[in-house]
Amino acid sequence: MSGTDDVTHIEEELPLQTLPLDAWHRDRGARMVGFAGYHMPIQYEGIMAEHGWTREHAGLFDVSHMGQLTFTGDGVDAALEHLLPSDIRGLKPFRQRYSMLLDDEGGILDDLMVSRLGDGAFDGADIYMVVNGATKYDDIGWMIEHLPDEVTMNHMDEQALLALQGPEAGAALASLIPETADLLFMQSGLFTWRGVSLWISRSGYTGEDGFEISLPGDDARLLADALCALPQVKPIGLGARDSLRLEAGLPLYGHDLTHAVSTIAADLGFAIQKRRREEGGFIGHARVMKELADGPGARRVGLRVEGRRPAREGAKIFAGSVEVGEVTSGGFAPTLGAPIAMGWVSTPYSAIDTALEIDVRGKRIAAVVAPMPFVPHRYRRKP
Amino acid sequence: MHMSRYFTDEHEWIDVEGDIATVGITDYAQEQLGDIVFVELPAEGTTFEKGDDAAVVESVKAASDVYAPISGEVVETNSALEDEPALVNSDAEEDGWFFKLRLTDASELEGLMNEAAYKKFVASL
What we know:
The complex is a heterodimer. Chain A contains 10 helices and 20 strands. By secondary structure, chain A is α+β, with helices and mostly antiparallel strands. In chain A, the strands form 4 sheets. In chain A, strands 11-12-13-10-4-14 form a 6-stranded mixed beta sheet, sandwiched between helices. In chain A, helix 2 packs across helix 8. The termini of chain B are far apart. Chain B is of the alpha+beta class. In chain B, strand 1 (4-7) and strand 2 form a beta hairpin. The longest helix of chain B is centred in the C-terminal third of the chain and has 9 residues, at 115-123. In chain B, 19% of the residues lie in helices and 38% in strands. A 6-stranded antiparallel beta sheet of chain B has the order 1-2-3-9-8-5. In chain B, strands 4-6-7 form a 3-stranded antiparallel beta sheet. Classes of the chains: A alpha+beta, B alpha+beta. The A-B interface holds A 1-8, 42-43, 46-48, 51, 239, 242-243, 307-310, 312, 331-332, 334, 339, 361 and B 10-12, 25, 29, 34-35, 37-38, 40, 56-67, 85.
């Protein structure tokens, strides 16, 4: 028996590093794999069980591999508006936005979350950014190259990041920190728990209500223990994180998004607010404007796959004998009990309900272009 | 009734009764694969040489090939796996069998492990 394609895409050129909760995961029976240069837990009791637990209760995810950056200095908004296509000037304190780094041709270098800080969090820095783990060093290099001297970027590589996700995440966190109950989706705040400073945003990458909690790595075990002592909370591995985000229709950098694809084709135009589209002034603007005017050649779509057999990354998509696209993420959706996929499809074949076929290891399997998310989002928004 | 059970270093088990061999993957293998959502089985009548691709196991996270551990002709497949692939997780070494082969070369069994040797092999991984 041999694994042929694994979602973890292990790349072990350099020795893997350990994250603050490494021993904590192993103590809980996690199976550890190499991911983004770190030893990380892929599962504890099993992906299906962990996936279901997160959809029904609350799951704790260690995402400390992600890059946590702060930006400080005169002109920080203007500098970041050059780097990011999103509205930074209009970003209020304690608010978070989804954005991305684009290259000169408008290709996506990374997708990220950007927030305006407040209450003196992170030594009084102005802006907080979370970027993908596998791309963080490239991102840092790119930004150093493009930031003016007045703006200081700090990579907080001793900082841990925990995500608490699921319909019971709000009640669970409020039982430790009652003030977090007031946060709405994409709002953040600075909280203190047992003397530890926590920067908490109400966000995540599962489609569920939940939080992302930034705290010093040395304190991560204390909080992880306290959260997992609650009846609603269990630790969840990377395997379920991937199946949850796929059901939620959320793209994964390095798979669904790469430097070869653009914001508009990726259906991420919502990250570029009206003023930014009109005024431009960010790297990659020309491509965005061209694709807004002419439409992109291909689009990121969701696919429902017939039968039970998953279509996985790399599988070619056909309309009759014509190859029209490629699967970029695919797997079995535990919530739906059926395989789903995300991929690129040539624009004429990208409309919802278009019947296509996917070549799964030499067999043609029927698939239909489907709206995303596959499982509805349940974020806590203003009532 | 006692059958001889053999194991391979690819984590397959083989029960041999007369010239018929029943093939499945081991409990260790299903544990490593995680939740199994689909099993592709060979057509009856297919002939395999030892080492040929014989089946595919799809777990939530990955697809894995199962090789023919010995040469033979497929005489039966486990149709229960079509509706309930999770049988491989719950009962890998009995009800979760994959296919039965009519052996063409029984001498190929000689190099395989018995249960004690396989346990030792797994412990060393």
